[in-house]
Amino acid sequence: MGVFNIISTIGGGHESRTSNQGRRFLFDEQLLAMYFSRTMQLFTNYEGNNDGHDISQELHTKSIGNQTYTPQITGIYPVQTNSLKKKNYYFNNSHTITYNQILRTASNSEIGLNAAYWTDRNNISSQQHTMHLLPDNGENSFQEYQYFKGHQSMLYGDLSYITMVR
Known about the structure:
Order of helices and strands: EEEEEEEE
Distance between the termini: 29 Å
Number of helices: 0
Shape: elongated
Structural class: mainly beta
Radius of gyration: 24 Å
Oligomer: single chain
Largest sheet: 6 strands, antiparallel
Strand order of the largest sheet: 1-2-3-6-7-8
């Protein structure tokens, strides 16, 4: 016998855009499930949104007090952005699922399982118009349009066995 708990938050709406872009449905949702008993602890979380909130920043792995990560050696860099807050230009569709469980196997040992999955699709566009006035009253003008469409995913997991020695 144990204690089971579920917490859910759901939000939705629409964003008015220009006449040729139509409307975009926005959502922000989270589901949290927990179970605690004498021999087991379970913590599971789902979160998803497309309202500009970057949920990848909420996933961190720790190893002996130091944050661990895999460095990115090569990659495609998106277009440069301006000084606006990220949520004002970040058109994303993000989802993350985490699973954490501790199971007591004997009076002095435990098995732990941790897993996380994150996926994100985003679109960024940029436009720049530059004009140079020349000494002969002429002008040199050019426009630059950039469009970036990205998809990133991450899967993380670890399994641990801990024995207490007295």
